[in-house]
Specification:
Elements: E1 2-6, H1 9-14, E2 18-21, H2 26-36, E3 48-51, E4 54-55, E5 67-71
Length: 77
């Protein structure tokens, strides 16, 4: 099991701050969470994804992953 944590607008779109997931790859995870949380379509494409603290793009294996953070862009000044 991998814990996925959603922050700010991603948490609002997902309707939860965290959930346990079992997908084997990052692409499978993206597909599954978009199917289950349709409002994420508006946020996820702009989010940074960290797998065990390391920014990860593309399709990565989640076989040994323990924590995934979904971070939308933050505004600030």
């Amino acid at each position: 099991m991998t814990l996925v944590r959603y922050f700010a607008a991603a948490a609002e779109a997902a309707g939860t701050e965290s959930e346990e997931r079992t997908e084997a790859t990052l692409d499978e995870l993206r597909t599954a969470v978009l199917d289950e949380h349709p409002k994420l379509w508006f946020v996820l494409p702009d989010c940074a994804v960290l797998v065990d603290g390391v920014r990860t793009d593309g399709d990565a294996s989640l076989a040994d992953a323990r924590l995934i953070d979904v971070l939308p862009p933050f505004a600030g000044g």
